[in-house]
Amino acid sequence: MITSFNPATGETLATFAPHDDAHIATTLDRADKAQQQWAQLPLAERLPHLLSIAQTLRRNKEALGRIITLEMGKPLAEAIGEVEKCAWNFEFYASSAPQFLSDLMVPTAAADSRIVYDPLGLVLAVMPWNYPFWQVMRAAAPVLASGNGLVLKHASNVPQCALALEGVFKEAGLFEGLFSTLLVGADKVPALIEDARISAVTFTGSTPAGRQIAATAARALKKQVLELGGSDPFIVLADADIAQAATLAVKARFQNTGQSCIAAKRFIVEASVADQFVEAFCATARQLVVGDPLAASSTQGSMARLNLRQELDAQVQASVQEGAKLLMGGHALPGAGAFYEPTVFDHVLPHMTVARDETFGPAAAILRVANAQEAVRVANDSPFGLGAALWTRDLDQAHRLSRQIQSGAVFINAMVASDPRIPFGGIKASGYGRELGMLGMHEFVNIKTVWRGPNKT
Question: Which residues are catalytic?
Fold first, then answer.
């Protein structure tokens, strides 16, 4: 059975029988037919449907946010904000798709030569639990706008979110089956990728799982976009606004209970201002209120599962043994639920567990460096390359250093965040391909050259 638990209380919310092979086949047939009909609609007729989805999300944001909170434990205000961001994403693509998908005229020897963007077909989305609406909807908006369909295989601990997402598209009046949810385990993913009705795959999740997805898709010769793990550096140079950097650093590490691939995880600080930063960072972190994620007073909820809390605690205890200085936290909270104290380490060295591994929970590692060049070197000394933040008042230096940092994005004097207007994705063990923006839309289209003769003489 697929079981939905409330991680804040441990109670069972619902159970579902996994979809069997017959249901999967029927779903894929219906989705395939819906996509072919959808692709025949002119773009101008598809776009109002995107706006209808946005309106449906905004109309139901409190109820949908509550489902998110109950299934994965984030504070309710964050969950409602996640739904609102999904609506913004659909509004963005409704307004931007005509520009992103317009023919690109290319001067050649032909009478007419251009690049056009055709849909690929059905895209399989294998999605995680940490942003159970946003991760899906940031993929769905450009996929649907460009004439494709989407089949969702969601994380098994958020089945009610998966079904609620399908319900949003039904309520919005989209073609039946164009967005379809399959409640299946990970063991069904290879067969779904290999199915002839699936044209491409988008995956967000762990690096080991991404390698398996990539291998299967490669054997089937199908396009894939992988958004994988991260251990994002948050670099604070000596001339930075330390108070502002520390405030944003706490948000960048502890929002969503630290369970984000683009959360800041390694705080790399020039030694001359490290004491000042550490004091401000810990003072702000101590203001976090850990508690019932449905309560308005809570600013940090529970982790999504008990086994995830155990993994984080093992990393924390290993780092203590390795010599990292524990400044606050460091323990699971007693009682029901998967709660963990906001945890901060100082004097972390690059080889220590909290600096080397991805810590997917509320634990921050502060590393002290001598200068900007050492900061960049330490930042790049990681198998991951998703995002990075860089804090300095010297903007010329900031732009120069940003080109040296090995990541898919660098945010200067800001925290890393995904934004529909700009591409998002990583390098190295953080994956490849891009979501969002124009480039994200072009990942799942057939970029086709159309040449018309006679050639010019």
Answer: 227, 261
